[in-house]
Amino acid sequence: MKGKDHQLQAILKDNTKFGMTETHKTKVDHDVFYRNEFDDIPLLKRLKDKAYKQLGSSGGGNHFVEFGIVKLDNPLQEWKLEPKEYLAVLSHSGSRGLGANIAKHYTYLATKQCPLPKNVQHLAWLDLNTHDGQEYWLAMNLAGDYAKACHDDIHRRIAKALGKRVVVTIENHHNFAWKEQVDGKECIVHRKGATPAQKGVLGIIPGSMTAPGFIVMGKGNEEKSKILLHMELDVCYQEPSVKRVSRKARLKKFWQTMK
User: What are the pLDDT tens digits along the chain (259 aa)?
Assistant: First the structure.
């Protein structure tokens, strides 16, 4: 990357789109658009054209796309890579207008079907044993797959501009819900600022402008996995003042917990 800063900046500028209305001039197709949900669910049918136009864009908020260097000391055997440094692209984005409209629509239905006091109305839920609950479950999972499709397109465009081949892709959903077995019972597990960490599952802990990130793999320790799932929540509420806790201190606490 040395001496190529301007070239890499230009590649990011030309192949990424940020902002509520920014989209790529050249549109591409993707398998996700052939999912039955786009035909079977009226809301998704209306949103399909918008989703097609927004594919590969990142929207606003804290979303980003950046280059970095990955140092692999012990690459997985199936990667067929040597232990050395590699150029990497890290992206964080979501399901764009598709996901936002899904959330808005089914949240409205939930507030009507699950009346709660006004101050907690936003916590209303849909029963998965109802038509609307099942429809939302399908729509939410489609939105997650669409978010992955956006990442796929971002990385495809950048790899093409670089003239390079993608050798390894690590992808995780967050702010998502999964069906999982908890104490022998099937439950819906929602992770806001966290991703799954079951045995063998790869994950990414992003860094910052001054701190490195980490590629991690779940070890399958049930007790530790439960702690990891709630790590974001524990840090936020156990510290006297989150703003005064440095990133270095939070990472130190994280690694101590995971030992």
Answer: 677 889 999 999 999 999 999 999 999 999 999 999 999 999 999 999 999 999 999 998 889 999 989 999 999 999 999 999 999 999 988 999 999 999 999 999 999 999 899 999 989 999 999 999 999 999 999 999 999 999 999 999 999 999 999 999 998 888 889 998 888 899 898 887 777 778 888 888 877 778 888 888 888 776 655 544 433 333 333 333 344 455 566 556 655 655 5
In this prediction the pTM is 0.84
Phi, psi of 40 (to 5 degrees): -85, -25
E strands, the chain, in order: 64-71, 85-92, 176-182, 185-191, 202-205, 214-217
Burial of 236 (0-12, 13-18, 19+ CB in 10 A): exposed
Q: What is the CA radius of gyration of the chain?
A: 20
